[in-house]
């Protein structure tokens, strides 16, 4: 199940390290859950009071979300939620596809055909598709791709992938561009099998798979 929208009085308990990362995740979950609409303001003081933390980690978290193009920050005005456009989606997916192509190539060697966890995510996506659960499919789709990226063993690549805000863009692409849940689930099976047999073309397969989720990024498209 996806996280419930954050509400006053129901904030999670936060550990101290790294605090700004946890704040960023909290705000991102609120954005995805629809707690804030495009144009709404998110104030450092409001989030700090809600979570019971100082404004410093909130400020850092909002700056990180700004680099992900999810909010716009202005001095003494806090952050304003941005409209997630299809043009932004296209740009993010071009970068994401390049990162995941290399990640899949490296992961194929490191996994040595052990793709049980990936197969489980693919199966969970298919179950969500049968049940018509878009949120469940998004959750497992992101987990699927994150598992491959983290398996590459390159911290810099992993860090840059995480900075893209994949959860937000996956939700946008599936809800606005790819309504066929069964098709989305089946797409991931080919990647699992390519990794299982350590296909030398798995990187290209992954690249095309990712590009297929954004407008104008597929083969032969501009």
> What portion of residues is helical?
55-70%
Work out the helix count.
10
Strand order of the largest sheet: 1-3-2
Gyration radius (Cα, Å) is 18 Å
Low-confidence stretches: 1-5
**Largest beta-sheet characterization:** 3 strands, antiparallel
Structural class: mainly alpha
The secondary-structure element order is HEHHEEHHHHHHH
Average of per-residue pLDDT values: 83
Shape, per Cα inertia axes: globular
How far the N terminus sits from the C terminus, by CA atoms, comes to: 36 Å
Determine the strand fraction and express it as a percent band: under 5%
What is the total tally of β strands?
3
Report on this model:
The chain has a three-stranded antiparallel β-sheet. Helix 4 runs antiparallel to helix 7. It has 222 residues and is mainly alpha-helical. Strand 2 and strand 3 form a beta hairpin.
